[in-house]
């Protein structure tokens, strides 16, 4: 095999301007640590049998902390052996527990137990297989995956006998916690709670999971257990902070990755311009999938084991097919050594792919992001990422699959023809130089907390002491539930007084609205659901809908019944919906007056209507046409923060009137982009509307609103720090070196108007005008 970097440098693209940046990182030696004294010889031999003869320092450190009862999060690179951090102490605890376990205050025999949580069912099942491989037929470990696929007998066995349960937060929320009395034996012994892949618990979903974990802790405590939490996260900023927010506990972090890594180089690659023309005659680049296929063929023909990440299943198949065709022309025998991987494989199929890659029978694999969870592939020679995967942390994780001992490895980002990707490959410092993002969540969000307080009260009466556990916002939440007549206070605490199941009131994965069901017309199979608020834009008639990497076309969408009938298809185009949005102020709750400008917080009705969709040719992005749609107007009543500027103040800035709408729109986008820094939300949890003259205020107004019905606390946070927020927004726009606006400053990836109109310089002028008023004004909300 030749060196992957040398091979890349010999491709024509390396010298014709496609290779924009190449950055090398030195090899890293492993740092080993002694096995903890409490790990017995048999367990050590079992680890060695799976390839781990010696422990890496971060594994030993995290395992020691967990063993000592300290909550710990391990946030190290892909395949750095994070699972040893919990396997060592948890297996040891179960094996050394004697059958004469102590009894707790409730008279229940306390034999230790372990709860393992993964974000998906498939991953929990994989970890069950990994645990079985480690402990073999040792009957002291009685493990069970508990999920929606269990038979009645399996579930019964798990309740009666299992001491290691692998499940997901959804099942905990809906089943295990509400029927905790049946799981009393298991909960009473809870010694370790393992939360794997914690970087998935972010935004509103993360906030829900945070309360599910608090409910778990409360019930475990009621049975006399005080488990140690061991969390595993992909590399992320401030992992201890996120883990503490997630669990409500003080969590220590282990972040120094001691696993060995070979030398690795990162390349940023931009496909070349081609002869075709896009919308309005704009130049078009070769598609990222075609480019990745070419690179995959080049690398495989040099014997380099390469993984190509592609966003859709169809894209992955295109890359593999094209690479095979290219290889077939020159090295017929290599063509068969390129395969595809997608979600939905059986565990045995996944293991076979892992082995084929490891042993070199397979040299190239094109995959969707489905590979991110549940497949153990590392130590490859090269990774190609086709299109920026959304966060630097996700890119780092994909690149982390490349890295061999004793040789160099390569990670290449191939840009798609869109503004965000283009910006990033031209600004390596923004991508490779910047730290990875933190996993943001906000458990104090009052709209998330209420449903979990209700569920908790039904599980067992809520007490004053519990309010501290649920954290800021809990008291207000309980009071609101009492006022609504759902909870009643008695001597022992607050009780749930309704007849229905409180847990059913909360869908931890939904962002609100009745979910639309997506049904495959050919098989009648329910493929999944889309949140009500997003269905019009994603599954309208004619929409190309990608579900777990598979493409479908929507044949019929019924917005009233919430059903979309789809057919598996692989059209040569993509679709994107166009939306018209309007906003009306329902009530203004608070106002900060800054001389002639003002900032307000209140309730709004956001009306949106999906009016058409645009078809674009896959790859080239060429616009094929716009199709009108007849869909209802949707109204979301929610919280918003807004600021206003009177027309004469705007005119005095000298900004040309035709630029004002674009200036307000650009300021809105930038403000939305910056709020997650201040409000621990996700960009997708909020939305915005801006107008040069709003009928309710009579002035230029920029609104930023929560994307959840009833609000989610983000706009409120924005209002509380509005002055600081606007200053930061202004700085972010002004310090961006792009000439006319880019995704780093004023372009938004989720704009319903395709980022039209936008004026970057205008946005700075408007923000300066507001901030000037604020410096004149007497009251400052910041
Ligand atoms: N100390 C060690 N020495 C050698 N190999 C090890 C060691 N620890 C773990 N491994 C191997 O590394 C691989 C990855 O381990 P593991 O799945 O625990 O990593 P991870 O960090 O949880 O991975 P992911 O990033 O995919 O979540 C496994 O094949 C495992 O056997």
Automatic annotation (TrEMBL):
A Pfam family hit: MZB
Gene3D superfamilies: P-loop containing nucleotide triphosphate hydrolases (3.40.50.300)
Keywords: ATP-binding, Helicase, Hydrolase, Nucleotide-binding
SMART domains on file: DEXDc, HELICc
Leader sequence residues: none
SUPFAM superfamilies in the cross-refs: P-loop containing nucleoside triphosphate hydrolases
Domain Helicase C-terminal: residue ranges: 294-447
Single GO biological process annotation from the record: nucleotide-excision repair
Family matches, as InterPro entries: DEAD/DEAH_box_helicase_dom, Helicase_ATP-bd, Helicase_C-like, Helicase_put_actinobac, HRQ1_WHD, MZB, P-loop_NTPase
Residue ranges constituting the Helicase ATP-binding domain according to the UniProt record: 63-254
Designated name of the protein: DEAD/DEAH box helicase domain-containing protein
Molecular function terms from GO: 3'-5' DNA helicase activity; ATP binding; nucleic acid binding
């Amino acid at each position: 095999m030749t060196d992957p970097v040398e091979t890349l440098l010999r491709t024509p693209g390396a010298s014709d301007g496609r290779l924009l940046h190449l950055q090398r990182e030195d090899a890293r030696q492993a740092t080993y640590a002694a096995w903890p004294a409490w790990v017995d010889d048999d367990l050590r031999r079992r680890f060695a049998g799976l390839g781990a003869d010696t422990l890496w320092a971060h594994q030993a450190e995290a395992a020691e902390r967990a063993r000592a009862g300290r909550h710990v999060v391990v946030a190290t690179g892909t395949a750095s052996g994070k699972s040893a951090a919990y396997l060592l102490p948890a297996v040891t605890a179960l094996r050394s527990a004697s059958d004469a376990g102590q009894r707790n205050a409730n008279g229940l025999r306390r034999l230790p137990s372990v709860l393992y949580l993964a974000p998906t069912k498939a991953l929990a099942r994989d970890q069950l297989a990994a645990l079985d491989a480690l402990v073999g037929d040792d009957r002291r470990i009685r493990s069970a995956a508990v999920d929606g696929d269990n038979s009645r007998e399996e579930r019964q066995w798990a309740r009666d006998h299992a001491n290691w349960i692998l499940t997901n937060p959804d099942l905990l929320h809906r089943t295990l916690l509400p029927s905790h009395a049946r799981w009393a034996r298991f909960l009473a012994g809870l010694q370790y709670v393992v939360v794997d892949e914690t970087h998935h618990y972010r935004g509103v979903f993360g906030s829900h999971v945070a309360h599910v974990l608090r409910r778990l802790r409360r019930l475990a405590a009621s049975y006399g257990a005080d488990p140690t939490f061991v969390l595993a996260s992909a590399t992320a900023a401030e992992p201890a902070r996120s883990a503490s927010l997630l669990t409500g506990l003080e969590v220590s972090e282990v972040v120094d990755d001691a696993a060995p890594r070979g030398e690795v180089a990162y390349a940023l690659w931009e496909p070349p311009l081609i002869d075709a023309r896009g919308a309005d005659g704009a130049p078009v680049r070769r598609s990222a999938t075609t480019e990745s296929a070419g690179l995959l063929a080049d690398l495989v023909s040099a014997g380099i084991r390469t993984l190509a990440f592609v966003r859709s299943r169809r894209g992955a198949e295109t890359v593999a097919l094209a690479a095979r065709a290219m290889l077939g022309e020159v090295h017929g025998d290599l063509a068969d050594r390129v395969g595809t991987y997608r979600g939905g494989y059986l565990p045995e199929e996944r293991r076979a792919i892992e082995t084929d890659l490891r042993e070199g029978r397979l040299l190239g694999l094109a995959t969707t992001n489905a590979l991110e969870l549940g497949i153990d592939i590392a130590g490859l020679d090269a990774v190609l990422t086709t299109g920026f995967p959304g966060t630097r942390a996700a890119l780092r994780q994909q690149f982390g699959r490349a890295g061999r001992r004793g040789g160099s490895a390569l990670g290449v980002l191939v840009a798609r023809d869109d503004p965000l990707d283009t910006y990033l490959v031209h600004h390596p410092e923004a991508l490779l130089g910047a730290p990875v993002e933190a996993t943001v969540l906000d458990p104090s969000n009052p709209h998330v907390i209420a449903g979990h307080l209700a569920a908790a009260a039904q599980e067992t009466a809520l007490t004053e002491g519990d309010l501290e556990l649920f954290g800021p916002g809990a008291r207000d939440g309980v009071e609101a539930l009492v006022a609504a007549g759902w909870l009643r206070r008695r001597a022992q605490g607050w009780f749930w007084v309704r007849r229905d199941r409180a847990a059913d009131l909360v869908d931890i994965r939904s962002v609100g609205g009745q979910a639309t069901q997506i049904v495959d017309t050919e098989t009648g199979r329910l493929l999944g659901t889309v949140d009500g608020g997003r269905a019009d834009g994603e599954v309208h008639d004619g929409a190309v809908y990608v579900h777990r990497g598979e493409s479908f076309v929507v044949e019929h969408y019924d917005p009233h019944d919430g059903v979309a009938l789809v057919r598996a298809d692989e059209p040569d185009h993509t679709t994107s919906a166009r939306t018209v949005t309007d906003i009306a102020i329902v009530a203004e709750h608070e106002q900060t007056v800054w001389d002639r400008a003002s900032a307000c917080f209140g309730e709004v009705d956001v009306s949106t209507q999906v009016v058409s969709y645009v078809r674009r040719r896959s790859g080239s992005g060429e616009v094929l046409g716009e199709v009108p749609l007849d869909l209802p107007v949707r109204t979301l009543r929610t919280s918003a923060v807004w600021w206003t500027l009177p027309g004469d103040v705007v005119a005095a800035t000298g900004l040309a009137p035709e630029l004002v709408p674009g200036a307000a729109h650009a300021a809105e986008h930038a403000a939305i982009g910056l709020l997650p820094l201040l409000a621990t939300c996700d960009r997708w949890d909020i939305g915005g509307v801006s107008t040069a003259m709003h009928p309710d205020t009579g002035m230029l107004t920029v609104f930023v609103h929560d994307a959840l019905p009833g609000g989610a606390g983000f706009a409120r946070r924005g209002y509380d720090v509005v002055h600081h927020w606007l200053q930061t927004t202004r700085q972010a726009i002004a310090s961006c070196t792009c000439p006319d606006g880019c995704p780093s400053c004023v372009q938004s990836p989720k704009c319903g108007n395709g980022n039209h109109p936008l004026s970057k310089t205008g946005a700075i002028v408007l923000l300066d005008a507001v901030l000037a008023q604020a410096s004149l004004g007497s009251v400052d909300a910041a």
